[in-house]
Amino acid sequence: MTAKKKPGEFYRVAKQVAGEYPVVEGTRCVQVKIPDDGSFLPVLAGMVALLGNTWSSIGGVQARQDWAQMWQRAYAETDWSGCMNCEELIECLTPLFEAQTANILTLINNQNTFGTSTPGLPLTEEQREENLAGATNPGCNLDILWAQCLAIIDYTNTSIVDTLQKIEAATNVNELAGLADSIPLIGWVLEVFGTELATDTINYFQEAIQETYEAQYTEEVRIELACSLFCLGMFDCAISVDVVYDLFYSRVSAIVPDDPAAMIDFLEMLAGIDFDGTNVVDLMFWFCWGGVKLASFAVGKAVTTENFTWLLNLAVDDASPDWVFQCDCGSDWNYELDSTTNPVWVEIPGDRGEGEIGGNVLSQTSVVSFGQDVTGISGEIIFPSAQTITAVYIKQLAGTGIEGSTVVNTFVAFLDVSDNVIGGGAFPVQNGEWELWASGVVTGVKKIVFEYAFIGTDQTAVWQPFQIYGYGINPFV
After folding, report:
1. Which among 16, 47, 216, 270 counts the fewest CB atoms within 10 Å?
2. Where are the alpha helices (DSSP H) in 272-426?
3. Which residues of 308-317 are buried (b: 16+ CB within 10 A; e: fewer)?
4. What integer pLDDT is reported at residue 405 of this predicted model?
């Protein structure tokens, strides 16, 4: 005798592990029998359609995406009109067409509202690894990279603060649910967790996070985060979603149980963290970029990689050498030329001009060269071995008679072992005070040569000591 099932009992079919099946392009025809009534055809169609969702299987993100795409193709190529008369066909397809039309309108609305037709879907591996700064900084200019790192940090902070403030202003469930249009992540959370649980969770985050976040996020923290990103990218100037996410995950990995593979796991994991005494800034930055990676959400905004490419493109105009004194990337060194400590392989002046290095300034006198009076400052530094130079800094404190003079040379150059010029810059021909940063990672530098020389004896120039910045072992020590 077969026992009756208790009320509420039901059979469940386990989800398939997507990675255990081959990824194929084509489809094959099979004959499927259904109960003898036209109303069952939409049921079968719906079951096949469900397989076209990433959540219909388990496994890695890429494997689930491949699984869903195969079933989407199978669904699209299926002839659902077989064995049906016209009336049954119309009755069957009408709701399907209506649902498809509604889906298309949703995609269009998403594109117009959020800039992407599929908010909530994870980025592909290709999108995550794309160098977002590639087209904007092909020469790996570190001043540009610094501006782009600051732009990433400022964008993240703005996204976090704007979202927390909008949630704070929502005083009840209806108002919070109404934010789903402007904050797509809230709509996703409401759909996945249900209104009551989602509302309680969102309010908890807002209450636990906002006040502490605003207290912890300071200018010093902003610079620290930008420097951390800058140091990761200083040798190739590559910024990708994976690079940014991995940085912020590394800052919280000690307090989170695992690196989540899906957005729902990510939210559940975050909900289990005790925010008391925790660096909330690190957690929120991790949350922001985890959302970008796993669901195309930057906290309150639906995003695409094109959004970040545009952001980094705009940052190019804010290029700045401030990274030189703001960031310590571990093996950076800098040296200030000083006549009392210079090694023998530093020659100041060089073969043109006379000068000396004092405790505060590098000053010049005039000499006769090529039958003419030449005033200038010059020097040559021949390193014992090739170096990686990141910048030189020169500041003129005072100068007269320079503008309008006949120029002999005004340059600083980095030379390799074969005396080929591989970097450098030009000094301003200018009276008074000026400064020059010649920055950018230049490897294989065997010599640094500089000269600031003019014809005539009426020029004067007072410089601060010449400063050199490099990476690796400091050759001056």
Report:
1. 47
2. 280-295, 305-315, 323-326
3. bbebbbebbe
4. 84
Q: Which residue has the tokens 């912020």?
A: 248
Question: Among residues 128, 202, 130, which one has the least CA distance to residue 170?
Answer: 202
For every residue of 313-328, which 3-state class applies, written as one string? HHHHHHCCCCHHHHCC
* Segment holding 108, helix H or strand E: helix 86-114
pLDDT, residue 426, reads: 86
pTM for the complete prediction? 0.54
**Burial (Cβ within 10 Å: 0-12, 13-18, ≥19) of residue 277:** exposed
Structure tokens at 49: 């359609």
DSSP secondary structure of 197-257: HHHHHHHHHHHHHHHHHHHH--HHHHHHHHHHHHHHHTTT----HHHHHHHHHHHHTTTSS
41-50 and 61-77 helices, crossing angle to 10°: 150
What angle separates helix 195-216 from helix 263-271, to the nearest 10 degrees?
70
- Helix 263-271 / helix 184-193 crossing angle, nearest 10 deg: 80
The residue ranges of the chain whose pLDDT is under 70 are 1-14, 80-120, 167-208, 257-278, 295, 299-300, 330, 338-341, 348-374, 457
Confidence at residue 312, expressed as pLDDT on a 0 to 100 scale: 92
Helices 195-216 + 280-295 axis angle, to 10? 130
Residue 421 region, left (φ>0) first, then alpha (ψ -120 to 50), else beta?
beta
User: What dotted CATH number matches 332-471?
Assistant: 2.60.120
pLDDT, residue 365, reads: 42
Q: What is the dihedral of CA 20, 78, 122, 175, to 10 degrees?
A: -130
What is the Cα–Cα distance from 43 to 89, expressed in whole angstroms?
A: 14
The per-residue pLDDT for range 423-448, each reduced to its tens digit, is 888 889 999 898 888 777 788 888 99
Q: What confidence score (pLDDT) does residue 202 get?
A: 64
pLDDT given at position 343: 75
